[in-house]
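Fig. S4 source data, part A: sequence.
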Amino acid sequence: MTDQIYNYQDEKNYFIAKFDAFNDLTCFGGDETYESLQDAFHQLTKALKIDKLQVHVAMWGSIFSFYSFLIDTINHQENRQLKLVQHQGALLVTEANQVLMVHLPKEGLSLEEFFGKSSETNTIGDTILIATRNEGKTKEFRKLFGKLGLKVENLNDYPDLPEVAETGLTFEENARLKAETISQLTNKMVLADDSGLMVDVLGGMPGVWSARFAGPDATDAANNAKLLHELAMVFDMENRTAHFHTTLVVASPNKESLVVEADWDGYIATIPKGENGFGYDPLFLVGETGKTSAELSAEEKNEISHRGQAVKKLMEVFPSWQNTD
């Protein structure tokens, strides 16, 4: 067998795995933790006919993170195409259009919860509605959520929904307004973000007014031109520091909303460069790289951007939030 060691670590999870002579799981923690993980581990290995996987759990935050690590490890080692899908609080492992395993929460799920109230909702896979009509933003979220087994819709799929006025004075207020209002109107799980560029020498402007910096109906080009005009007399790059900020809010009817935030530091260039992205991406110099955000591929941007960081934070707490009343 290979001697390759697989590992994953974030703030709440730390897993190590290798393939050896037999299945085995060890972990730090009490008996309850050990028994829960043993049950989950052996359920998966039995369902997937895996017999040489050895795992050590130094720290864990959610069963989703644990299963996600195991699936990634098995896919890499055995060249499989397993997928982990979230559905109404359950976790499904699929491959080649087949369901191989279903992991249910301890309290179980009613048939109505799992399949929906009618045949129209009897579809596998949770859907998250992104509260935007911006296809560029939706494309980024679709890439980020797709590998987590979530289907992504946006407001263009619901043309009759009213526009929600962004009257808040902070990013969180605006994101909450959109997410919670649309969730109540659609009875769906809704993610809204309010993101913006904050330029230090401009006192944090354009901030929550980033999308309409040059006026109510401003285009990306007009906003970029306005920003360059405001910084026309700021010549030293060290004085052109800025950061993108995003606040994500996930709302679901009769549930406390989930909120995460993230920042992405950089500078404002003197001329726009790059063809990718949207908004202020052509002017935002990423750290010390010398590249603008618009010169990065979608994959590169998703790894380090404010939105990418926020979604990673969201996924750390999303499974446990989804399973709470």
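Fig. S4 source data, part B ends here. The mean pLDDT is 88.
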